[in-house]
Amino acid sequence: MPKILIIEDDTAFSQMLSRFLTRHQFAVTVSISLREAISQIKTSFFDVILSDVRLPEGDGVSLLSTIKKESPRTQIIMMTGYAEVKTAVKAMKKGAFDYISKPFTPDSILEIINDALKNGGIEEKERIDGEVVKASPSTSDFILGNSESSITLQNHVQLVAPTNMSVLLIGESGTGKEVTARAIHNTSSRKSKQFVAVDCGAVPKEIASSEFFGHVKGSFTGAVEDKIGHFEAANGGTLFLDEIGNLSYENQIQLLRALQERRIKRVGSTQEIHVDLRIISATNEDLRKAVAEGRFREDLYHRLNEFSIAIPALRERGNDLLQFAEAFLKKANSEIGREVVKISEEAKTVLLNYAWPGNLRELKNSIKRAVLFSEGASLEIEVLPEHIKTKTKQNTEAKDFSKSSYEKERILKALKQTNFNKSKAAELLQMTRKTLYNKINLYQLDV
Ligand SMILES: Nc1ncnc2c1ncn2[C@@H]1O[C@H](COP(=O)(O)OP(=O)(O)OP(=O)(O)O)[C@@H](O)[C@H]1O
Predict the structure, then answer these.
(1) What is the arithmetic mean of pLDDT over 415-442?
(2) Which of 227, 300, 362, 379 has the most crowded CB, counting CB atoms within 10 A?
């Protein structure tokens, strides 16, 4: 169960928030002062800290460096009043994950927490900790697009969704593989059952069996209670295996066996459990190459790849980019309480001229930041990040980001620029830290 620390001196508000988050299966601790919060952080680990900006003993931003030092994996979300946006921006520059303006809606706080957990490499939405939380089928935000590549994508999704075929989604980071997997699940007959997403790169090899198949109490040190695994959690529904290429060879064998037999055993148990699930997996590397190099089992590759879908890079989606940008603008407005109603023509030209190596995720983040810096009702060129204005498709030339040599070079450069601070490098590269760690492993970078 993800752990959240709320730092807030308004006790009525913190109690209400605490009750709400507890109902949504978070383990919540509340601190009413900075001093109390510091002692909590020193003694316990929190996945996410929600801190008020203004606290009686000082500003919540001053806590950031202590948190980053004591617990670098913890994601911090600042809660602000409308007048405190500048402080929030300062907090984000100092490493806070995001901020939210008070008053906020229950949906928006849940969404930011989910994003923060994802950023920290924790799969939250369908977390499995003795109990299963149903994924919310959020297709309402899903944008189809009108470009040829978007239409082909849509046709493939429609075609394969009603079947039981295993689907392999192939695309660069941030192109929307997880969103597509959810769309397939939500259009399938399994939609009323669980969609469970697992980041295979984040599952430590040693405990992968327990993560996938569960365990019984006492089966190993640390198995203090019975736990169901991802397979059982997704029973009847869809299991989404993200970054499948990162699964160790040994774990590939276990996965293949479970898929062939459609039966699993919890670690430490002899009882077989029948599982009926659909597998959707995703990769941003060429798995055929991994097979040829002996890093990925061919039999598993064929089992996962009954149908493959290439998710187009944003630069291949033509003017759909503006449709995405406008939808992200609306979303950012509602999340951060702004009313930027349009994107200026000059800013649109800049957006269309940039190559977007980080794809939709990079566009979404750039629009959100631009909304944050916008002062009027129109998003102007000035609030767009500098590199977007200078690095156009033309001067990025044919340096296709999907080509690993270019990507590796870019990652190394960003790491050097940030003095090997991975959070900052990930920010610069417009990718999540999780993706950066995966890529460091993939390219075997010694950093
Ligand atoms: N069709 C879409 N409509 C609206 N938003 C989208 C769409 N596709 C992707 N997004 C947004 O783009 C971002 C990246 O999407 P997603 O996480 O699915 O990408 P991914 O390819 O799985 O990334 P990674 O390889 O890094 O795991 C998310 O914020 C998602 O909400």
Answers:
(1) 82
(2) 379
Q: Report the residue among 111, 280, 361 best suited for mutation to probe ligand 1: largest number of ligand atoms under 8 A from its CB.
A: 361
Strand order through the sheet with 3-7: 27-31, 3-7, 48-52, 75-80, 98-101
Please check whether the domain covering 3-119 is classified as CATH 3.40.50.2300: yes
Q: Look up tokens 């617990």; give the residue.
A: 71
Q: Which amino acid is at 112?
A: I
**For the whole model, what pTM was predicted?**
0.64
Instruction: Answer whether 178 contacts ligand 1 (Cβ < 6 A).
Output: yes
Q: Is the dihedral of CA 345, 173, 309, 293 positive or negative?
A: positive
- In what side-by-side order are the strands of the sheet with 238-242? 195-199, 238-242, 278-283, 167-170, 307-310
Q: How far is ligand 1, taken at its centre, from the CA of residue 361, in Å?
A: 6
Q: How far apart are CA 5 and CA 38, in angstroms?
A: 11
In this prediction the ipTM stands at 0.98
Can you identify the CATH homologous superfamily of domain 148-310? P-loop containing nucleotide triphosphate hydrolases (3.40.50.300)
- pLDDT at residue 390, rounded to an integer: 80
Residue 130 confidence (pLDDT): 26
